[in-house]
Write a structure and sequence with these properties.
The protein has seven helices and 22 strands. By secondary structure, the chain is mostly beta strands. The strands form two sheets. A 14-stranded antiparallel beta barrel has the order 1-2-3-5-6-7-8-11-12-15-16-17-18-22. A two-stranded antiparallel ribbon has the order 19-20. Strand 13 and strand 14 form a beta hairpin. Helix 1 runs antiparallel to helix 5. The N terminus is likely disordered.
Length: 523
């Protein structure tokens, strides 16, 4: 970067922003709300299609009634290795990492001739954020900094007395606005983007379950979620300019916090003489209390914006229907259908904090960010998940498993991370990029070895999805009037010119291999 401008007015705006919220929008919510296929190696090897089959520790997070089929106590632990196919290691992000995926225990006690009351605890990695991403493309005159110019032309910076996003503030204070308050519209030639996501959501499930006459199984699980999300990205633009030839935006973003939900389920055998069973489950939204913080820099002068704030986020309800059947003691078949409307995700702003000195208690109130909520409804949609799985026992000590998952797309085809909304999630945004991921396919396989009271399970999972990456809003424009002059330089009318900022999508992939090993002990 050849020339940098810095103004006191911009610095004052930056000081005000530090008390405001960092990025909390539809695309962050979508990342927090989705779940991976994870758990014990047996569960993963069968594609997670065990909600009606039960007697598997991992089902307490999907259909709590599955724990009601245990007749003995059990404890298990799982380690995994995850490998991303594409991308290259960047900053803290790596294509390969070892993961502690699960540990759980079930205690079973007889309460009648054919009835049991069971208690269980299970931890599993609900969401793995580790992912490195690289994207590059030509800009054909558009640019991220040009968004700032067009937003200013449309008068967005004066809305409700609020200025602009952290990113707009950096562009205005350092390159777009000069010392004479003249906007400079720098055209882009090309860009390079690197991003490293790390972290996870860990889920701690506490379960109570049982059965009635060995035909109806009921279960309830309370889940506590721990969020550890970290993101670092670098966006580098080469500009078609002699004055400023390039610009680098570096962003650090972290989200931490916790959430809770309640899951209920039942399994029943409609025909007493048949092992065929049907499962039904429902999960409340996960109610998150989160803290987001970030700092963003421009160029090599390390001019910096930062923010830290608490916010609330509620995921959608989830519903499940499952089928399970066994043939003798050598074949088990399972199928699961789940549905969740991600358009109902609710990003919430903390608008009240109360401390009772007499009782020494603290409480908060929050309200929906209605503008962002409408944007989420128009950007995300209902997702259907189909899980199929089978287990074949070649003999009493050897089991072979196969599974398949299909997850329909979460994003609308025309979904966009709108940087013009009157919402805190936009006012203080530090990045503009987004990805509209398409459907997901998972293929799984596994093998289990039993010896005495122990069982060793191995599983392999291959997941595939594609997406469209955009460095900023794919289309945005602003118009202005200009004087039309005759040959003598006299004004004879006015004209209108429209400036546009357009970027093409770049196809990206998220293909992963996962290998897991579980050790289980029955007591």
């Amino acid at each position: 970067m050849k020339k940098i401008y810095l103004f006191a007015a911009m610095a004052m705006a930056a000081m005000q922003m530090q008390a405001q919220s960092a990025t909390q929008d539809t695309y962050i919510g979508a990342s927090l709300a989705t779940e991976d296929l994870n758990g014990t190696a047996r569960y993963v090897g069968m594609g997670g299609a065990m909600d009606a089959l039960g007697a598997e520790i991992s089902t307490m997070g999907s259909n709590p009634a599955g724990i009601g089929l245990f007749r003995k106590g059990q404890v298990s632990a799982t380690l995994g290795v995850n490998v991303q196919e594409e991308g290259k290691s960047f900053q803290d992000g790596s294509k390969t990492h070892v993961s502690f995926d699960q540990i759980g225990v079930v205690f079973s006690s007889r309460t009648g001739k054919t009835s049991y009351l069971n208690f269980g605890f299970n931890y599993h990695k609900n969401r793995n954020f580790n992912h490195v991403l690289y994207a590059a493309n030509a800009l054909k005159g558009s640019a991220q900094n040009r968004m700032t110019v067009l937003k200013d032309m449309n008068g967005l910076f004066l809305n409700n007395g609020l200025a602009y996003s952290q990113l707009d503030d950096l562009y205005l204070g350092n390159m777009v606005l000069d010392e004479n308050d003249v906007l400079h519209d720098y055209a882009g030639y090309s860009y390079d983007f690197n991003r490293a996501n790390t972290g996870y959501i860990g889920e701690f499930d506490f379960n109570i379950s049982g059965n009635i006459k060995n035909r109806l199984y009921l279960g309830l699980t309370v889940g506590v979620h721990s969020v550890r999300y970290k993101n670092y990205s670098e966006y580098y633009e080469i500009l078609s300019s002699q004055e400023i030839t390039d610009v680098l935006i570096s962003d650090n973003h972290k989200i931490t916090g916790y959430g809770y939900n309640v899951k209920a389920g039942l399994i029943f055998r409609p025909v007493e003489e048949s092992p065929f069973r049907i499962g039904v489950s429902v999960a409340t939204p996960t109610f998150y209390r989160l803290t987001t913080e970030n700092y963003t820099t421009i160029g090599t002068n390390v001019d910096r914006e930062s923010a830290k704030e608490d916010f609330r986020f509620n995921t959608p309800w989830k519903f499940g229907l499952s089928l399970g059947h066994t043939v003798g003691d050598y074949l088990a078949l399972g199928a699961v259908y789940e549905y969740a409307d991600y358009g109902a995700c609710d990003m919430r702003t903390v608008d009240g904090r109360y401390y009772d000195w007499y009782y020494d208690t603290y409480s908060e109130s929050s309200s929906s960010d209605n503008v962002m909520k409408r944007h989420t409804e128009n950007t995300l949609k209902g997702v259907s998940t189909l899980k199929l799985g089978a287990e074949f026992k070649a003999d009493k000590n050897l089991a072979i498993r196969l599974g398949y998952n299909y997850v329909s797309p979460m994003y609308q085809e025309n979904g966009v991370r709108d940087q013009t909304l009157y919402s805190p999630g936009v006012y203080y945004a530090s990045t503009t990029h987004y990805i509209n991921w398409k459907d997901t396919h998972r293929i799984t396989a596994g093998v289990g070895f039993s010896f005495d009271k122990f069982r060793l399970d191995l599983a392999y999972q291959y997941s595939m999805r594609k997406g469209d990456f955009y460095p900023f809003m794919k289309d945005y424009s602003a118009s202005y009037e200009y004087d039309v002059l005759d040959d003598n330089g006299s004004v004879i009318g006015t004209g209108i010119e429209t400036l546009t900022n357009h970027c093409d999508a770049v196809s990206v992939k998220d293909n992963r291999h996962q290998i897991q090993c579980s050790l289980t002990y029955t007591f």
